[in-house]
Amino acid sequence: MRNVVLLTLDATRKDVFGLYGSTRGLTPTFDEFGAESLVFTNAQTTGPYTQASFPGILTSSYYLDFGRPKGLSPHRTLVSEPLQRAGVATAAFHSNPYLCEFLGWNRGWDRFYDSMDEDVDPKVPYVHGDHINRMALDWLAAHRRAQPRKPFFLWLHYMDVHEPYMPERRFLEAVAPSLAMSRDEMYALFQKTLLPRDASDPDRVSILRRLYDAHVREIDAHFAQLLSGLEDLDCLAATTVFVTSDHGDEFGEHGGLSHDDKLYCELVDAPLLIHGAEEAGTFHPVVSSIDIAPTIVALFGLPAVSGFQGRSLLPSRSYTQQGVFGEAMAQHTKPDDGVKHDVYFYREERLKIIHRREPESWELYDLATDPRERKNLMDSSLHADRMASKLLPRVQRWMASP
């Protein structure tokens, strides 16, 4: 039985990786690792921000399955729970407040770290990836000493790419050596441009993107450190490693910044690679992040989990392509609004449809000819009615949820 490591990258766009066509040289470690992995070229997240996407990754379910979330619903099953019951050692290390113990994400873990009690920098309120690595590797070393034959599932989440975009000088110099900014200047840019979602000044947006890219270079260094640690513990050869992101970030592509309630490619197209599963190469059919947890469970030889809506991605030759879904809601509504400012997407092969309820709108894109989603075909495509019929049953289904 193999071990599994799941690495999730917060707010990390697919198009920053060389293995997905970037020429900026930001991800040499990921690219080298990806060359020996099974790389999914059309993976989609289930939402454009953490609260909407992580139910897909860790519970193989959708954000609005159980109404407006107030924490992790007891009706969801975390991938850690069946693994722990089966005798797999489980550990989680992250620094995202939306995934904390208080909100219920600690179920099924032998060791769960979420940094909520840490004294973090108020301007950059998360623990960096190198510290996440050290804690995870320390746990793994202790586990290996105590129970060397017991398989493990280890989840790590890096927050470093997330705003406010204040990278260390060494990473900024590696990516944009001509950009000389103090931390105070970076934070002021965050406050005056990113927080108000003001994409009106292309120069400021360009600076934000370079700061973001420096963070991408930073997590590549963290990933190299993690791989080295796994090698030192003599674990890597017997471990299947998953790498993905929970969502991307926008830099003016559709008039905004950061990641709110939009469902365009810059936010929901996800990197996804699986290394060490006896498969390598590229896999082009559309897949969803809801397929990650079922794949992990299957790798441990366990039966399918009731309630998981995805399917195992392995072996890839047995994966039958189906349409995938995603959803979100406006993040700044009042608690008594219910879920009325909701938005949904459905994608199959080259077509993608988006429906927003307030204000009412429909968009349909042919991603093969229009990958940046600029030309709305809703009023002209012969596929419009069929695609809408796929999506409509999901709209407001939360009203009948337990």
The SSE order reads EHEEHHEEHEHHHEEEHEEEEHEEEEH
Quote the average pLDDT: 95
Contiguous low-pLDDT stretches (5 residues minimum) are none
Shape: globular
| Topology, number of strands | 17
CATH topology of the largest domain: Alkaline Phosphatase, subunit A
Task: Tally the structural domains.
Answer: 2
Please give the count of helices. Answer: 10
CATH homologous superfamily annotation of the largest domain:
Alkaline Phosphatase, subunit A
CATH class of the largest domain: Alpha Beta
**Largest sheet features:** 8 strands, mixed
Strand % is 15-25%
For the biggest β-sheet, the strand order reads: 5-4-6-1-7-11-2-12
In the CATH hierarchy, the architecture of the largest domain is 3-Layer(aba) Sandwich
The helicity comes to 25-40%
> What oligomeric assembly is this protein in?
single chain
For the terminal residues, how far apart are their CA atoms?
A: 37 Å
The helix/strand class is: alpha/beta
Radius of gyration: 20 Å
